[in-house]
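Re: the pair you flagged

First of the two:
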Amino acid sequence: MDNMTLTVIIITLNRPDCVRRCLDDLAAQNPPPDQVIVVDGSPDARTRDLCNQRSEVLYLRNDAGPGHMTRSRNIGLLEATGEIVAFVDDDAFVHENWRSEILAPYADPAVGAVGGRVIQGSSPPQPWVEIPKIGKLLPDGELYAGFDTDSRRILEVDHMMGCNMSFRAAVLAQLGGFRDDFPGISGICEDSDMSLRVRRLGHKILYNPNAVVTHIGAPQFKGRRFDARYNFYGGHNNVLLLIRNFGLRTPIFYRFLVSTSTDRIRDVFRQFPSGPRAAAGAIYRGLAYFTGLFLGIAVGAFRRLRQGRSPFRSDAFAQSLRQRLVHHQNLSHARGFAKSRHDELHDPTAINASTVSP
């Protein structure tokens, strides 16, 4: 499916060196993406200056700054022209043949999204991963990962990892883009929310272990990975995801509350043998998680009451996004037809049927 047009959107915040390598690896693809968009929330001009040196890159700003990764995704979508739109993080570097591998599953018209393998720096794959569970939403509400695992085959999944995921532009247009309900600098669960919404439309989501990126986990703009702030947003966004897509009065919601509470309390007790400092840190992170969890329940209930369970965004921004994506798709198809016709007319080996004698 290399004949399909591909837009790659890179979301970045204060990592110009990572962006440089990310762009270099994308440019080395054969062929390179048809469009590359960088959406930058940095407080300085280093990433802008870097992108301005590259004619193949469209540079966009998210002036909302840190904590608005989902908005950055939507800003990029407003200018996307490809039939397929892929997202890679600024610290996720594509491997050879990534483009062809991420596009290949779209030969099946039932496929609405494709995700790829994510190698976590130099870390080996987790040995506990159960391949049939990779990318599945489990009955207790857990979003099973395992995306660093080479499953040896393409799998049908329920969700993808945001640093290496792609969608049909037409599906994103139909849904009205990403929901802005999922705050946090790292962007937690907005990728899974979009995946579940795609599934609710009846499309398949596939995990292709041959579409590989290496994710180095660069330092955060503020704080550390998996700190108390991350735990707060983890609790908030996970429960919000379940409420928005399934509702409050559903078994998966109640099972999630029981399982996640049990896991967090167990984590605290595991730290006691390591000393009071480790135990205090676990308690602090646990309190942050439960604070986010309860706030997420309140926000989710309010959103559910106001907007219902529909997977579609219907606000003014969503309407604008639909119009822009459809407009870009129409222009892209028109250019593709014109190029095909031009090549046909100027191909010296082409045979004009009208000149051939019977």
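Second of the two:
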Amino acid sequence: MTEQGNIQAAGCPGVLHFSIDGSFRRLRGDHCPIKACALMSLLVAPISRDTWVRRGLVLEYISLGYNCLEVLVALVAGILAGSIALIGFGFDSVIEVTSSAVLLWRLNSDFDQKQRQRAETISLRIVGFCFMGLAIYVSFEATGDLWHRNAAEGSVAGIILASVSLVVMTLLARAKRRVARGIDSSALRADARQTEFCAYLSVILLGGLLLNALPGWWWADPVAALTMVPIITREGWRTLRGKSCECSHSYTS
């Protein structure tokens, strides 16, 4: 629903224009002031902080559930195929599970103003350490595979998982960023950024698994894993320093 023209104050005099499903409708405040005022209040009323927090909790529960499934599929498929990128992707999912659990605690603490800032600070630090743990693991394993020339086998399950995760994580990251702006939470912004990285990792993983199927491209898998490291490390460092990856902006006070 898109507002067209001006909405006037109490008493609802004048004309209200709205676009609904691409067509224009007109409501005259002097003809139906009660209905017009009710509709105006729905359009201009800000979303409360509690509503944003509840939305955030729903998103984190979805994220937690999906990432638990992702851990299982990625680790099993990665071990069977000998794919360090796929195993690294599974470990990233473990980090995502940890991050979601921490953010669930953070969001539940939001209802208590005295605990809110403390929970925010602790959550931000934990998410930052999760980033660093992921970077260390991927660096160690991928470097070892390159040194020993370990060739991973193809994995249909891994390709399907990466494709699905690309879509799911992109949508979750976008929704989390919106809630983070609504409550002005750096911890949730960092968690949204980590979810966004999971989408990036899905693209890298997908490319590595597909290239790995070509003759002579055994190195594609560990190289794909190593390309993740600088981005993850930089974001982890920023998070530990308490820097937000987006400009702080709150929809509500």
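The chain has eight helices and three strands.

-B.
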